From TrEMBL:
<dbReference type="InterPro" id="IPR017972">
    <property type="entry name" value="Cyt_P450_CS"/>
</dbReference>
<keyword id="KW-0472">Membrane</keyword>
<dbReference type="GO" id="GO:0004497">
    <property type="term" value="F:monooxygenase activity"/>
</dbReference>
<keyword id="KW-0349">Heme</keyword>
<keyword id="KW-0560">Oxidoreductase</keyword>
<comment type="similarity">
    <text>Belongs to the cytochrome P450 family.</text>
</comment>
<feature type="binding site" description="axial binding residue">
    <location>
        <position position="316"/>
    </location>
    <ligand>
        <name>heme</name>
    </ligand>
</feature>
<keyword id="KW-0503">Monooxygenase</keyword>
<keyword id="KW-0732">Signal</keyword>
<dbReference type="InterPro" id="IPR036396">
    <property type="entry name" value="Cyt_P450_sf"/>
</dbReference>
<dbReference type="InterPro" id="IPR002401">
    <property type="entry name" value="Cyt_P450_E_grp-I"/>
</dbReference>
<dbReference type="GO" id="GO:0016705">
    <property type="term" value="F:oxidoreductase activity, acting on paired donors, with incorporation or reduction of molecular oxygen"/>
</dbReference>
<dbReference type="Pfam" id="PF00067">
    <property type="entry name" value="p450"/>
</dbReference>
<protein>
    <recommendedName>
        <fullName>Cytochrome P450</fullName>
    </recommendedName>
</protein>
<keyword id="KW-0812">Transmembrane</keyword>
<dbReference type="GO" id="GO:0005506">
    <property type="term" value="F:iron ion binding"/>
</dbReference>
<dbReference type="GO" id="GO:0016020">
    <property type="term" value="C:membrane"/>
</dbReference>
Amino acid sequence: MGEEYSIGLVFVWPPALLLLVVEIQTQIDKQFSLLAVDDWTRNPPEVARGNYRLHLKTHWVGQQVVEVHPFAKDLTFALACRLLLGIDDEEAIAQLQKPFGHFSAGLLSLPIDLPGTNFRRAIKAAKELRKEFEVMIKRWKRDRSPSQSQGILSQHLLELNEEGQESDMATRILALISASYDNVSTAMTFVVKYLAEMPNVYDAVLREQSEIAKAKEVDEPLNWDDIQKMRYSWNVASEVLRLHPPANGAFREVITNFTYAGFLIPKGWKLHWNAFATHKSPEYFPDAGKFDPSRFEGNGLVPYSYVPFGGGAHMCPGKEYARIAILVLMHNVVTKFKLQKVFPDEKVIGLPVLRPAKGLPIHLYPHQQL
Ligand code: HEM
């Protein structure tokens, strides 16, 4: 199982993930997800028009305090449902999100299938979700129509025109949404955390985003050119991803002996490459603990020193999706609100995914009140 690398490594999945997602041997089909994600990145205005405004309006406008992490999870899930699956109905999204939360919590758990364990709950949730997705896929096939409201995956699955493969397709959908869910929501949460903690960074992001907003009509959605102008904002997000990589790395299996830093790494070993440690290397990132978005100006990064999205043959195909999702959130948040953390010393906890211990509650101050 897995794809080979020229230096003698092969990609492997952690055990729980393997059992839950890849049990029918189909790995996540990279071409499939690449096509889907490319389509989406060509059409970012949909995002600004739909979920972001709606979410900020219903969850932030009029509120004094919001919990950013749960909000980011809801937003990420709703985005995936809307953009990938074409589901708009909030109730339908909420119904899927509950089992999805169990599934996601079990992905990086110990694969112990006993009552009360995260793993057992995740198996149950995965079955439930697959069943839901299978029904959905059958409906897409039955109603086959080039409706604008359909999601990217639904359209793509129809284009593939695979007969009778509903269970495979359902697994692909599950795998793709889960690949985005925790990572994107964690990245969004830490971006907002730094914006709330660093007034000078916030001000510079606000300047950039205000210029973009000023050049548009009221309520005119963001477009691809606007996203390209968000250079400083993306440097900020990149620095956040360096200090808090949401995916801490991945596994590889050694398929031929090789030497690394003077050590012989024998065939058959399993390796974990670690983004967190790599990003803290003083060799590649001077004063590595310092938050400094200017590191990303110019072309100064050494290849494979900055790996929040991995690298090589299995590099994350959702990178552009994530970039746009994060930038559009930054735009909408800073142009509307000033932010202040409720708990200035809120701890960050790990295992399995880094997150602020109390969900990052923040005070919101709408700009007109400043
Ligand atoms: C901030 C957000 C994200 C981060 C930090 C992230 C990070 C990663 C990392 C580290 C890997 C492993 C790469 C490797 O082994 O070299 C990966 C793989 C993957 N990601 Fe992401 N990801 C993010 C968002 C997304 C999104 C939005 C999607 C889909 C819509 C996605 C889909 C995938 C898929 C399908 C793979 C497996 C690729 C393969 O095995 O060939 N990711 N991601």
